[in-house]
Every structure is written in structure tokens, then in C-alpha cells.
Amino acid sequence: MIVDDADYLIDAPLAVELDRLVTQDGPQRPVLVAAGATEALATTYRPWVVDARRSRAGLLLGPRSTLDGELVGVRLPRTAVGRLPPGRGILVIQGEVAPVQVALPPECQV
User: Fold this and answer.
1) pLDDT by residue (tens digit) across 41-62?
2) Distance of CA 102 to CAs 2, 12, 31, 94, Å?
């Protein structure tokens, strides 16, 4: 399941359904991919957001602070933040950090 603008859903009625989906057990439990503002997602305790953070995996596009990595359980190096070219980001998987460049930056989409 992909949730875009997840920071806008934290207090929305749909959040209750997302909470239910990520707390169920068994093969029907969905994988959640959430995109949203780091600040909002790092400070909420809704079960579906906590589950996403617990995965310790994510793509941080254009991180503005070394603290942005705390969302996925890492402290970013200073060289990974600030004035990065469009589409440049940091991929985090289980605590491992790697620089990435997405194929088409969001501001270049048609």
C-alpha cells in the first residue's frame, strides 16, 4: 500500500483504517510505503506511522537536517544534507546509508 502526503492523513478518518491494517497479523497484512513531511511523520505515534518508522528503511529526498535521518533510525552525515541537486537523496535500509539520484526529480515531472 502506498500513501502519499501521509502527513496530511495523521488526524484524518482514514488513519483509523491504516492503524487497523498495520496491526493485523497474518499473510493479509499489507506492506506500507508512506511519503510525507519528515517533521510531521517523526513526531506522531499513530500505529501506521510507528510501523513505517520501525522498518528502518526509507528514501529521504533533499534532507534539510542531519536529524531527518532519525525518522528511519540513523543520524545523517553533514555531507548528506543541505543544498543537494534536485532528485538527490539518501536511501536508508537497516541503518545503512547510501546516496541516490532519482531518475526524474519531482519538480521536472510533466
Assistant:
1) 888 888 888 888 888 888 888 8
2) 18, 30, 22, 20
